[in-house]
Structures are given as C-alpha cells and as structure tokens.
From TrEMBL, chains A, B:
This is Transcriptional regulator. InterPro entries: Tscrpt_reg_Rrf2 (IPR000944), WH-like_DNA-bd_sf (IPR036388), WH_DNA-bd_sf (IPR036390). Coiled coil: none annotated.
Length: 138, 138
DNA sequence: AATTTCTGTAACTAAAATAATTACATGTAT
DNA sequence: ATACATGTAATTATTTTAGTTACAGAAATT
C-alpha cells in the first residue's frame, strides 16, 4: 500500500487554502490531521521545495504559491513521493533463462503504462476539486 | 512502492506457460527468479487459490487452468495482493474540523478513481501479451 | 515397502519503509 | 529578552516484505 503522505498533504493544503486569512501553525494542522507537528513540517518542507507553498522559518503559517485550480494531485504526489516506480520488479533474475533474461524490461513497460494511467487520474484532479468535494460533503 | 509479488508471479506463470511439456519444480523456478523456493510455493499457493493454476502436493510441476489469453494481469494482481486499497489515508483526523471531518470520504473517492484507472490497464494486458513481449525481446 | 523428491505451510529472521517522537539550532515578533 | 515558531537531524516503534529453516505429508522410483 502506498504511504499516506499524499493524503496528509492534501489535507494540509486544503486547510491552508480554506483559511487564507489565518496563519496556521504546524501544531494546529497536526491537530486536524491528528499526528505530530514534525510530520506536518516535513511535508510542508517537501511541498515548499516543489513550489506549492511558501513558509517562513520562525513564522507561523504557510501561503499557497499557486491557485487551488492550478495545483493537481499529481503535483502533490510527486512532491512528497520519493519513489519513481510504483511497482517493484525482482532483481537479478537468471540471465541464462529466456524468461529471466527479458522479464524485467517487459514488466517495466507494462508497469509504466499502469502507472501513467494512475498518474493521469491524479493529474485530472486539482486542489480546487478536492475543496469543492469537502464543501459538498459538509 | 508496491511489492514485487505481481512481478514474480508473472515470471512464474510465464515460465510455466512457455514450457507446457516440462514439469518445473519450485526449486527450478526459484533459480530463474533468483529467490528461495518457498517464496515461489507461497505465490503458486495464492495463484492456485485464485484458480489460475493447478498443483499437486509432492508432485513436481504446475499446470495453467486457463489459457494465457484468458489470464489478465489484474487477475494475477488480485490473486497475490492482499490489500484492497492502493493508497493509505491517515486515520482519526479531527472530526471537529470541517476538513478533518470530510477528508477521508473525499480522498476515498479520488483514490478509488486512480486505482480503477491502474487496474483497467492491468486488466487490458494478458499473460499471452507478456509472453509475446518476452519472445520479441529475445 | 523403503527411499527419494517434491509440495504446502508454519515459524522465525533480516531488512526496509513508514510514522511518530525527541531534541535543538535558528528565525520572527513583541 | 522572551516567547513561540520553523527546519531538520536523530532515534524509536511498528509494519511490511522477503528470505530462510523446518517439517509433515503426497507422489514417484527403486
């Protein structure tokens, strides 16, 4: 199962976007997510590096650096997910075997297609869409 | 990253399908995959439960119970992957917060769409396709 | 029938990933 | 100066994954 960093990051960005007036501390956000403030700060660090938000050391609060309509879930996913490949492929299959020799490149192509399909869905949804759903669900 | 069980399972099934005459032991397959025979037997156990192959205790070799054209990668994936959900969502967000209260159901829908897109790709490719690619790559 | 060889499966170990936590240097505001 | 925040390193606990050992029992061979 993929880790929860995308889920928590969407939570963080939704909170910031829905309260543009308030400066929310990592501790406050952690209270909404129900985790440790350091977990939040690590994620905002990655989101800042990806250019999705701006923070100031020592100063409470974060600002989005793009409009919610411009932030896709794929951008968030890429910002906080270190792994390039979704599926693992076993290493060192036997090169003396016709299957072992070619299975990696074959699966590489297949898995890449599946991954791209997933990423296309993540790219089709923006933070604005998420906020709309959040508001509807209320 | 998703575990390598799908990759290894495709390897196993490709080997069996490409040598319908030979009875391959878990030890032989393990030699091609480059892992421990028990890892192979665990996977063939799951594949057998899913109705993709037949084995006999004490007797070497396994037989496919469907034609390679009928076995999709999604069937294999479902056979060896225990988790229902691809993405994790953080538990116990704060119900007193409008975002915390609704983030789970919102992300649940979003992640389900992404997962379905991935699974549709896995469903579109069969073991026969994989074997075709393996033969071409040689 | 005895032996060999295999599968199925439980139990254990090792390594890696994830999240939570502690600690602290440093920046900002009053 | 003090209070309070962020950024980040280091540590710990938990879970997942894969590899391994061990062995009961099925099948084939002699």
């Amino acid at each position: 199962m993929i880790n929860s960093r995308l889920a928590v990051s969407v939570h963080i960005l939704s909170l910031i976007a829905s309260h543009p007036d308030q400066a929310m501390s990592s501790e406050f956000i952690a209270g909404s997510v129900n985790t440790n403030p350091v977990v939040i700060r690590r994620l905002t660090g990655s989101l800042r590096q990806a250019g999705l938000l701006a923070t100031t050391a020592g100063k409470s609060g974060a600002m989005l650096t793009k409009r919610p309509e411009e932030i896709t879930l794929l951008m968030i996913y890429r910002a906080v997910e270190s792994k390039d490949n979704l599926f693992s492929i076993h290493e060192h299959p036997n090169p003396a075997c016709p299957v072992g020799r070619n299975i990696q490149s074959t699966l590489d192509n297949t898995f890449m297609r599946a991954q791209r399909a997933l990423e296309a869905e993540l790219e089709a949804e923006t933070l604005a869409d998420v906020m709309h759903h959040l508001a509807q669900a209320r």
